Amino acid sequence: MDGANRGSSNPKDGSLTEASREQERAHSRALEMDLIREAQAGSRAAFDVLVRQYEHQVLRLALHLTGSEHDAEDIYQEAFLKAYRYIGNFRFECSFYTWIYRIVTNLCLDQLRRRKTRREDHAVMVDRAGDEIDLLASVSDDRSFSNPARELDRKVLGEKIQAALGKLTPRERMVFELKHYQGLRLRTIGEMLNTTEETAKNTLFRATKKLRTQLAELR
Fold first, then answer.
1. Nearest-5° Cα angle at 83, 80 to 85
2. What average pLDDT does the segment 174-190 reach?
3. Rounded to an integer, what distance in angstroms lies between the CA atom of residue 21 and that of residue 77?
4. C-alpha span between 2 and 23 (Å, rounded)
5. pLDDT tens column, 65-107
6. For residue 134, what is the enclosing H or E element?
7. Which domains are delineated in the chain?
8. What is the Cβ-side half-sphere exposure of residue 61, based on CA atoms within 13 angstroms?
9. Given this model, what pLDDT does residue 203 score?
10. SS3 state at 184
11. Mean pLDDT of the chain
12. What is the pLDDT of residue 59?
């Protein structure tokens, strides 16, 4: 009897755990909102806490989207300067995370529009968690690659991917990278780019279709 009890799970346990997580998230959101209000009231210390919370994510995002350490550092500084300057305009309709990411993505879009070059990527890149991801897996269909050829031609493959990404519009590339490298939801991406989730979805579809066409010869 005892063994049966030990082997069974209480369905309430999962609910309690999820409820606890939700309480923690709500508590974190409340603390963040308090910090924003203090920053709006002129507290530099409160704003500095917000910066420390998101500085690494902002720098990493800028680096992924621009491919340049120099540009990423410039955008990082400009993003937080803008955030500090316009913190009074924050209306609590989204999280600070979404708001600062929106500033960063717009700055990156401006930078990408100013130049048409692309960093020297390879087929394998690094996502926001530090794990390697394969770009081809993001655009591939049901057909498979030849593993030996894939390894031997890795450098050529990376160059072809660079060329394919370079043919996307800045907005298409931005949506593609935010979705596949940053792991953001389309709704969040839409908010960041001041558009709808449906528009972001359509943009991602166009970007993926273009990449598939460009990389079709590799399959």
1. 110
2. 86
3. 33
4. 33
5. 887 889 999 999 999 999 999 999 998 888 898 899 889 998 9
6. strand 132-134
7. 16-115 (1.10.1740.10), 116-219 (1.10.10.10)
8. 31
9. 94
10. coil
11. 78
12. 92
Predicted structure pTM score: 0.63
Q: How far is CA 152 from the centre of its chain?
A: 30
Angle, helices 197-215 vs 154-166, to 10°: value is 140
- The amino acid that residue 107 corresponds to is L
CB burial readout 143-159, b (16+ within 10 A) else e: eebeeeeeeebeeebbe
What CA dihedral angle connects 53, 67, 113 and 192, to 10 degrees? -30
Comparing 24 with 117, the larger pLDDT belongs to: 24
* Alpha-helix runs per DSSP H in the chain: 2-7, 11-40, 44-66, 69-86, 96-114, 135-139, 147-152, 154-166, 170-180, 186-192, 197-215
Residue labelled with tokens 């305009």: 89
The tokens of 130 are what? 């530090």
Q: Cβ distance 118 to 165 under 8 Å? A: yes
Q: What is the DSSP letter of 126?
A: E
Q: Is the pLDDT of residue 148 over 60?
A: no
Residue 12, token pair as written in the block: 């309430």
The radius of gyration of the chain from alpha carbons, rounded to an integer in Å, stands at 21
Higher pLDDT, 132 or 179: 179
Q: Which of 38-47, 103-112, 138-147 has the lowest mean pLDDT?
A: 138-147
Instruction: Please list, in sequence order, all residues whose beta carbon lies within 8 angstroms of the beta carbon of residue 83, skipping any fewer than 6 positions away.
Output: 47, 50, 99, 100, 103
